[in-house]
Amino acid sequence: MKGISSFNPLGFLKAFTKDRSVLGIDVGASSLKIIQIRKDREQAVLETYGELSTAAYTGGEAGRATLLADEKVSEMLVDLRREAGATATRGIISIPLRYSFITTIDMPELNDQQLAEAIQFEARRYIPIPLSDVMVDWWRIPAAEGDSSHTIKILLAAVQKDVVEKYKRILSQAKIESLGFEIEVFSAARILSSRMRGATLLFDIGALSSKISIVNQGVVQAVHHVDRASQSFSLAISQSLGVDFKRAEQVKRDVGISNRPEAAGVRHTITPLLDSIFDEADRVRTTFRRRTGLPIDHAVLVGGGSLMPGLVDYAVEKLGIEVLLSNPFGQLVYPAFLQPTLKSIAPSFSVATGLTLRALGAMD
Asked: Where does 193-325 sit in CATH, by number?
């Protein structure tokens, strides 16, 4: 896009030669996750994976969100690669949604070249900082069936250049060649099964925030950010039960909001927070249906927070639609004996896996 700095990862990805392995690196608020995948005969082969809590580097409590200096994140990355036995020297890294700007805009029907020229002017109306300070990209949103308007919808996304440099620096200090970056919601969306029909409501429940997006025909069409997530649940449990954060985190992981008798108090404490998130999701869903006429009859949960016992059943109760836990490993080849372990952690590795699939796709 002439006149605008683009952050499309394909622009950064290098040609692969002998090294067919790539690292997907997900820098979360409470942990760092990596996954190493190799392309072999058109298949994505899982080689290794790992997760490391930021608590080990701050003296804090596991599950609590922490903002680490770039040097400390690089140190974690070096340590995690060693512990996981990762050998790939090239990686693609996620950018948290909080560091980005995403919106939809209406444009007249134009070809791609005309759009590229028009968007560089139109973007100034929506991005609150000078375009010289950001990297911008855009995607066409497929028109709804029966749409007779003479406009098209564009998903516009921007990341500040200093944020991009921050993540490049993290990789460089860890001796990893950068293959690019991607805003986390796009990585998470990539792991949705191609067998899913219609629009999907995608929940990414992290430590610090929840991201709600709608994906249709493989394209992210709406994104919403909520400042309530897994850490909020633990803090509420801590206050309600009068226990420290560490104990509250364990209670959340062990009993959550399941229908077990011992979970009744925790369920009563957490559900108001969950209700506020699901209410936001319902507003996003209603707006999407009003705009497109398309129903959303299923949702997918990703992120470590989605592993809380009882959450899937409660989401079904609140949303009234089918709700599934994501399984990004379902798109990979791996030894059968790993299946029980991978199933228990799968949602946590959705973003990291989506990143690697992006990189492997560029090898075609």
From this structure: 3.30.420.40
